[in-house]
Write a structure and sequence with these properties.
Layout: H1 2-30, H2 45-114
Helix pairs in contact: 1-2
Length: 116
């Protein structure tokens, strides 16, 4: 269970990181006085490197999010399977116990009727 929780937390953290990167990009693109690299004819090498790094960070983050999502899904499926197995075992044990009690009650009733 801890593993699923840790993976869920990692997924949440990755989503927060992605949102932070997207927010930073949005601030950069909409900031007044900051030139749009696409609008400039001679974009500087630094701008191009920064854009490349941002795109790489987005791609890496998307991969990490998907990996974490898949890991959490797999873990949850395993936990569901374990829970189903445990529920079935408990159901079988309860049925057996009910049958045993039913037999004991029937025996007690029969003894009560046969004794004057």
């Amino acid at each position: 269970m801890t593993s699923a929780l840790e993976r869920f937390q990692a997924l949440t953290k990755a989503a927060q990181e992605r949102a932070s990167v997207a927010d930073a990009i949005g601030r950069h693109e909409s900031a007044p006085g900051v030139p749009d690299p696409d609008a400039q004819d001679g974009s500087s090498e630094t701008d191009l490197k920064l854009r490349k790094e941002i795109e790489q960070a987005r791609a890496d983050l998307a991969v990490r999010i998907e990996q974490t999502r898949c890991a959490v899904k797999t873990e949850l499926e395993g936990l569901r399977g374990q829970a189903r197995t445990e529920v079935e075992q408990m159901r079988d044990e309860a049925k057996a116990e009910v049958e045993q009690l039913r037999g004991e009650v029937t025996t007690a009733i029969e003894r009560g009727h046969s004794t004057p």
